[in-house]
From TrEMBL:
PANTHER family: DNA ADENINE METHYLASE. It catalyses: a 2'-deoxyadenosine in DNA + S-adenosyl-L-methionine = an N(6)-methyl-2'-deoxyadenosine in DNA + S-adenosyl-L-homocysteine + H(+). It holds the Pfam family MethyltransfD12. Its EC number is 2.1.1.72. This is site-specific DNA-methyltransferase (adenine-specific). The keyword 4Fe-4S does not apply. The lineage of its organism: Archaea, Methanobacteriati, Methanobacteriota, Stenosarchaea group, Methanomicrobia. Keywords: Methyltransferase, S-adenosyl-L-methionine, Transferase. SUPFAM superfamilies: S-adenosyl-L-methionine-dependent methyltransferases (SSF53335). One of its GO terms (molecular function) is sequence-specific DNA binding. It is an enzyme of class 2 (transferase).
């Protein structure tokens, strides 16, 4: 019996926690009735949708994908070595919380420096115990950095400065154990969205959460990995969406709504013409100016007509 419900073990910019009700209300009937055999998520990110859906609905198998190597490493460690990860995090938390503010900052930058230095030594096709320390470092940095962002520069180095939290909770033991249990039934893959194709058939539900199209030039925040995700990639994704639709798969995709900024911008309406496109309210969370964190619309696109249910 799980002590707590599975949910993201990382704070993740662009996470979909606030929209879970909207997604669940639009799930295919086959998912609700237990007739969908597989769940696939080609952009895993922090995993808010994955943890919510797969903990509530039964699937024979699940698969998550991401191009972020360290994210895939962390998921794998939580699944394979949660006990060792918890012990390492316990030691880091104890050490950090017993330091004064200046020493905490020094500790943070030491961990960040080692984390970036060891980046090239981790091989995703060769699992080892060294992964445990790296996953622990990532969780530590995520819990103690400024705003809980994951951001890398063009060279792939984590570059978020230290945060100033009085008593950050670095180890969430019950949560890690619940997540580990859920991940036992999940294939964890490093690759872009097209890598999921071999795992998709007519009994598969696929949820796409690509890097959002910026609402304007100043709002772009796509540095979760070294590669960007511009309009050409959005078009490639739409073509892939149509390919999976032709297989009979059940598909859902979310993205920012360009009409928030320009009511005449029909980018997604044209890209996904013929599919069901709905607009739902959401709060903009990623903005350095708190006054501009207001309600906006996001789009939810499905290749079926959702029968909206109570959330």
């Amino acid at each position: 019996m799980r002590v707590c419900d599975p949910r993201p073990f990382l704070k993740w910019a662009g996470g979909k926690g606030q929209l879970l009700g909207e997604f669940e209300a639009r799930l295919p009937r086959a998912v609700r009735e237990g007739r969908a055999s597989a769940y696939v998520e080609p952009f895993a990110g922090g995993g808010a949708v994955y943890f919510h859906i797969t903990s509530k609905y039964a699937f024979d198998e699940c698969h998550i994908f991401d191009t972020n190597e360290d994210l895939i490493l962390a998921y794998t460690v939580v699944r394979n070595d949660v006990d060792d990860l918890i012990e390492v995090l316990r030691g880091m938390e104890t050490t950090y919380l017993n330091l004064d503010a200046k020493k905490r900052e020094e500790f943070y930058y030491t961990v960040r420096r080692e984390y970036n230095k060891e980046r090239s030594s981790i091989q995703l096709n060769n699992y080892s115990k060294a992964w445990v320390q790296r996953a622990a470092d990532l969780i530590f940095l995520n819990r103690t950095c400024f705003n809980g962002l994951f951001r890398v520069n063009s060279e792939g180095s984590f570059n978020v400065p230290a945060g100033r939290y009085r008593n950050p909770k670095i180890l969430h033991e019950e949560l890690l154990r619940s997540d580990s249990e859920l991940l036992e039934n999940t294939g964890i893959h490093h690759g872009d969205f097209s890598s999921c194709a071999p795992f998709v058939d007519e009994k598969t539900f696929v949820y796409f959460d690509p890097p959002y199209r910026p609402l304007n030039r100043s709002s772009s925040f796509t540095s979760y990995s070294k590669g960007g995700f511009g309009d050409d990639e959005q078009r490639r994704l739409a073509a892939f969406f149509r390919d999976l639709d032709a297989r009979g798969a059940m598909l859902m995709l979310s993205n920012s709504d360009p009409k928030n900024q320009d009511p005449s911008d029909n980018f997604f309406d044209e890209l996904y013409a013929g599919y069901c496109i709905e607009r739902v309210p959401a709060r903009r969370m990623i903005n350095s100016n708190a006054d501009r964190r207001g309600e906006i619309n996001e789009v939810i696109i499905t290749n079926y007509r959702p029968a909206i249910t109570d959330r």
